[in-house]
Amino acid sequence: MSLPDPLALLAAHDAWFWLAALLGVTILGIAKGGFAGLGVLGVPIMALGMSPVTAAAILLPILLVQDVFSVKAFGANRDDDVLKRMVPGACLGIFAGWALARFVPVAAVELAVGAIAMGFGIQRIRAEHRGVPGRPGGTAAGVAMGAAAGFTSQIAHAGGPPFQMHVLPMKLPRDMFLGTSSVFFAAINWLKVPAYWALGTFTPANLWAAAALMPAAILSTWAGTVLVRRVDGPRFYAIMHALMILVGAKLIWDGFSGL
Fold first, then answer.
1. Other Cβ atoms within 10 Å of 132 Cβ, number
2. How many CB atoms lie within 10 A of CB 252?
3. What is the overall mean pLDDT for the chain?
4. 98 to each of 102, 183, 195, how far by Cα in Å?
5. H-state helical runs in the chain
6. Which residues of 174-212 are buried (b: 16+ CB within 10 A; e: fewer)?
7. Is 156 left (phi over 0), alpha (psi -120 to 50) or beta?
8. What is the C-alpha separation between 169 and 159, in angstroms, rounded?
């Protein structure tokens, strides 16, 4: 059996496909570089030029490579206690998401996560304006939010808000927050590989498209790591809370549109 021609597979996509893919991958790279939260926009933007299923399948190999760069940039400075609580929970969430994918509407998950994320962002901005400190959760909360992040990542590629809702109130140093986030989502993405493989989404066309987009993914991830280091701690957290609100609003919109 002859192998498919990579150039023919790539040429089968039109200009809108490549424009949407390039924009989505670039935004995702900036998110991986440190501006956590923006990554949830990757699939919706790419879906402007292809199906969401195709977008997610193309993005996963790209995410695995971007994770290498973000972990190398920040991973040495991480909070292992947070990871010990959240990663086991994420395993449970990813399995539940895979098992329940056919029964749980993606739009309903997006709507629920968006409403919670938006409310959390608004509450934290108001609390910090009044000087009220955050209240970090304990072990049970870490496992539960890890499970929520794994579930929403598997179902709707929206694992960022649950992670941030658990970790942002801890007020970790900027680089420790970034290191913890990069290692956590690198683990989640590898844990999702068997489910995507079982679903048959790693087709030659999707893998070659991911390879073609890889240079833009790597460059944008590097750019994100450079930009985020120019932002001091207090401003970084203000940006994160604002992104929570924007991402929440986007998920609410997607949820309502899909119902």
1. 11
2. 18
3. 84
4. 8, 22, 6
5. 6-11, 15-32, 42-46, 52-74, 80-100, 106-129, 139-156, 160-167, 174-198, 204-228, 233-258
6. bbbbbbbbbbbbbbbbebbeebbeeeebeeebbbbbbeb
7. alpha
8. 17
CA distance 214 to 186: 17
The tokens describing 91, both together, are 């395993």
Q: Report the predicted TM-score, pTM, of the whole model to 2 decimal places.
A: 0.83
DSSP 8-state assignment for residue 137: -
Tell me: pLDDT of 4 over 70: no
Q: Using an 8 Å Cβ cutoff, are 79 and 176 in contact?
A: yes
pLDDT tens per residue, range 175-228: 999 999 999 999 999 998 988 888 787 888 888 899 999 999 999 999 999 988
* pLDDT above 60: residue 43: yes
CA distance 17 to 28: 16
Both tokens of 61, joined, read 């190999």
* Structure confidence at residue 1 (pLDDT): 46
For residue 42, give the nearest of 210, 234, 177, 242 by alpha carbon.
Answer: 210
- pLDDT of 40 above 60: yes
Rounded alpha-carbon distances, angstroms, from residue 255 to 64, 147, 258:
27, 21, 5
